[in-house]
Write a structure and sequence with these properties.
With 472 residues, the chain is of the alpha+beta class. The protein has 15 helices and ten strands. The strands form two sheets. Strands 1-2-4-5-3 form a five-stranded antiparallel beta sheet, with helices on both faces. A five-stranded antiparallel beta sheet has the order 6-7-9-10-8, sandwiched between helices. A hairpin with a 5-residue loop joins strand 9 and strand 10 (259-262). Helix 6 (148-158) crosses helix 9 (237-245), helix 10 packs across helix 14 and helix 11 packs antiparallel against helix 12.
Length: 472
């Protein structure tokens, strides 16, 4: 778009037009005289920190004007007159516009072909309260927010090490969203780091409208048929810190409280912050419980449906699992229908006011379940198994993985209905092939440390290790 010139009137006309002065009510500009120079100040209302800007301009219009006399260029003027630490010298108009729209204060002076970009911004934001989807009984109760500076400060507060690197990238042709890679430069896998840099540089989208999800979709190799997540997210600074200290890379996106943990394998979703806030034995128990519940939620309804399809194959000792009355609706339809109803209640709860959401969910589940049984649309056994599956989904810390398992379970049910035992066997084989063929963004593989096999990593995954000098 060009560069600034030494003519203030020309520079002012260009920026007035591009920033929309007079057209945009929130773009503020004013003229001022600093010693021998006439100047023009631009700031986006709501971004600028009024107190800081007031102190900066007070000094420039007062004692700073005398100190700046004789400055030969903008950099010398900045060194003499502007006391604020975060200030840059720039003449590229594109970069100046981007700086203004991310909250920097722009100062033009007559006779200088560079401007001062003062980073005296203060974004509106919320408090760093604990995230709703990552609560712990012990440990810190803070969480990431939508402001990048606060998020990086939460990491710095926990890792006071010069090896912690926060590397900034601009993503999105029009949005120019800040994306920060956080890692320990003496522990990170340099190959993974360079691969991630190339993926970020190759992103060709005009805007990162959905924050971290837009970035994830832009850097993930498309596999539309594969529901399994390739990225793990967290809003907890302690979880992100632990991953950084283990040599992983954290990707933070401005305007999002969720950070991406890379590389990610399927088994990383089995870990949770609560595992590390209890003694190793308790943490190991919780981890195994989470894995067992996940497998039960995946297989309990397909296996039950396979058994009760033909009551003759059910052993006498398990005869209690066979429904006394089949109901008016086929069992397959009952199981699939309840899966849809559970999702319907979740969506309804999201759009229900907080004061009513819990009551609505319980009321809806009780009324629908009781009425359906009395009308013989559903058998009680189906309600019991689907209630267990619904509860088990909440034991899974990743919503994305929970929905992937739900779709897999529904596929198993349909295959059992079509091909009986061989349908379930074929479904399990297809599921394993799908997992093995899943391409993660970074790392050794989606099924690591089983494929490729790494005994030590698998042991650390299955058994919560006590904190020691080696793993801190």
């Amino acid at each position: 778009m060009g560069e600034l010139t030494t003519n203030l009137a020309e520079n002012q006309k260009t920026l007035d037009t591009l920033l929309g002065v007079g057209r945009n009510y929130d773009v503020i500009s004013r003229d001022l005289y600093i010693g021998q120079w006439k100047g023009r100040l631009y700031v986006v209302d709501g971004y600028g920190d009024d107190g800081v800007i007031e102190r900066i301009t007070s000094f420039m219009l007062g004692p700073g004007a005398a100190l700046a006399q004789g400055s030969k260029d903008m950099q010398e003027f900045i060194d003499r007159c502007i006391t604020f630490c975060e200030v840059d010298c720039e003449n590229n108009i594109d970069k100046i516009l981007t700086g203004a729209f991310i909250g920097k204060t722009i100062l033009l002076l007559e006779g200088f072909d560079y401007c001062a970009m003062i980073d005296a911004k203060k974004f509106p934001g919320r408090g760093i309260e604990e995230p709703s989807d990552g609560k712990v009984l012990r440990g810190s109760h803070d969480g990431f927010v939508e402001t990048m500076v606060q998020n990086t400060a939460l990491l710095r507060r926990r890792i006071r090490d010069p090896h912690l690197t926060l590397e900034n990238h601009k993503v999105g042709g029009r949005s120019q969203t800040d994306v920060v890679l956080a890692y320990m430069d003496n522990q990170v896998n340099q190959g993974d780091l360079e691969a991630l840099r190339k993926k970020l540089d190759a992103i060709d989208v005009s805007s990162i409208s959905m924050s971290q999800e837009s970035v994830a979709e832009a850097i993930v190799k498309p596999q539309w048929y594969n529901p399994f997540p390739k990225v793990r997210y967290t809003e907890r600074p302690d979880t992100a810190t632990a991953c950084i200290m283990e040599g992983d890379i954290i990707l933070l996106v401005d305007n999002s409280p969720s950070v991406m943990l890379l590389p990610t394998s399927l088994f990383d979703f089995m870990e949770e912050a609560n595992d590390y806030y209890f003694p190793p034995l308790v943490g190991t128990y919780l981890r195994w419980l989470r894995v067992i519940v996940m497998l039960l939620a995946l297989f309990i309804t397909p296996v039950w449906y396979l058994l009760v399809k033909d009551a003759g194959r059910v052993p006498e000792t398990l005869s209690f699992i066979v429904p006394e009355e089949p109901g008016s609706v086929p069992l397959l339809v009952q199981l699939l229908l309840l899966d849809f109803v559970v999702d319907l209640l979740k969506l309804a709860s999201l759009n229900t006011p907080d004061a009513l959401s819990n009551s609505f969910s319980m009321l809806g589940a009780l009324i629908l379940g009781d009425f359906a049984v009395q009308a013989r649309w559903l058998v009680p056994e189906v309600l019991v198994y689907m209630a267990f599956v619904a509860i088990a989904n909440f034991a899974q810390p990743s919503f994305e993985l929970g929905y992937a398992l739900k779709l897999t379970r529904m596929m198993f049910l349909i295959l059992v209905a079509l091909f009986d035992v061989w349908g379930l066997v074929g479904g399990i084989i297809a599921w394993l092939i799908l997992l093995a063929s899943t391409k993660p963004i970074l790392g050794r593989g989606y099924l690591y440390p089983i494929c490729p096999f790494d005994g030590k990593a698998l042991g650390r995954l299955l058994i919560r290790q006590p904190i020691s000098k080696k793993n801190t």
